[in-house]
Amino acid sequence: MLKALNTAATGMVAQQTRIDVTANNMANVNTSGFRRARAEFQDLLYQQVRRPGGQTANGGTLPTGVQIGHGTRTVSTTHIHQQGSLQQTEGPLDLAIEGAGFFQVTQPDGTVAYTRAGNLHTDAQGQLVTVDGYPIEPQITIPTDATSVTISPDGLVSVTTAGQSQAQEVGQIQLANFSNPAGLEAIGRSMFKPTTASGQPVVANPGQEGMGTVAQGFLEGSNVEVVTEMLDLITSQRAYEVNQKVIEAADEMLRRTTSR
């Protein structure tokens, strides 16, 4: 019965983790470029009372054994890098990636982070930056007298300035991708950084080497599906309650045993 108490407790902890992950997904249902996460679990070690295939007293072979599990544990929270829906904004600096790849962002410490959020702006110097003011990589500067900005599906940035009818190229957006995007480390602000599990980034122009293309005037929404998250929430809540009932039952059985 003491084993049941501990086993059910691990189940409650696991479901609490799952609810925490679901809550974060739901909180970011409207966050551009957000990637939903999924909690994954494994069962713990088993107490081998009688091993399958063991010998019986009369020399026979056990077709099954007696194995008592000791609960569950959280082994990972995997980010699902599935394409989110594209939302039309008409903003000339709003970009969405159709397909694989990440925008590259230079952080204040000089390291490069990666994001699918393409809601870009210009800073005081005309550089293309994220909503946090981090410049994209490679850096692109929009002239202050630009009257229009055009970004092609292959990432070529062209502007038209006052008094000119011919557009001029001012930069090239490049994307990065990884052999294992699930191995990226989430660092907040819809950004990720590479790890040894993700592998090193492969950088190319949009539309080349398996990269997606860029859609101007669109933003990629969160890939969170509200109905799926609600079902996960209900399932987790019920599983938590069942594990709680196991603890109550084991506690009552232990109380009855010790009261005699």
Describe the structure.
It is a single chain. The protein is an alpha+beta fold. It folds into two domains: 2-81 and 224-258, no CATH class; 86-220, no CATH class. Helix content is 23%, strand content 31%. The chain contains two helices and 19 strands. The strands form seven sheets. A six-stranded antiparallel beta sheet has the order 15-16-8-7-14-17, with no helix packed on it. Helix 1 (2-27) runs antiparallel to helix 2. The chain is elongated and about 95 Å long. The two termini are 16 Å apart. 23% of the residues are buried. The model has no long low-confidence stretch (mean pLDDT 91).
Radius of gyration: 27 Å
Gap between N and C termini, in Å? Answer: 16 Å
Strand order of the largest sheet: 15-16-8-7-14-17
Strand content: 25-35%
Low-confidence stretches: none
Record field, number of beta strands: 19
Order of helices and strands: HEEEEEEEEEEEEEEEEEEEH
Structural class: alpha+beta
Summarize the structure.
The protein contains two helices and 19 strands. It has 260 residues and is α+β, with helices and mostly antiparallel strands. The protein has a six-stranded antiparallel β-sheet with strand order 15-16-8-7-14-17, with no helix packed on it. Strands 11-12-13 form a three-stranded antiparallel β-sheet, with no helix packed on it. It has a two-stranded antiparallel ribbon with strand order 1-4.
Indicate the topology.
Elements: H1 2-27, E1 37-43, E2 46-50, E3 66-69, E4 72-79, E5 86-88, E6 95-98, E7 102-106, E8 112-115, E9 121-122, E10 128-129, E11 146-151, E12 156-161, E13 168-172, E14 175-177, E15 185-188, E16 191-193, E17 202-204, E18 213-216, E19 218-220, H2 226-258
Antiparallel strand pairs: 1-4, 2-3, 5-19, 6-18, 7-8, 7-14, 8-16, 9-10, 11-12, 12-13, 14-17, 15-16
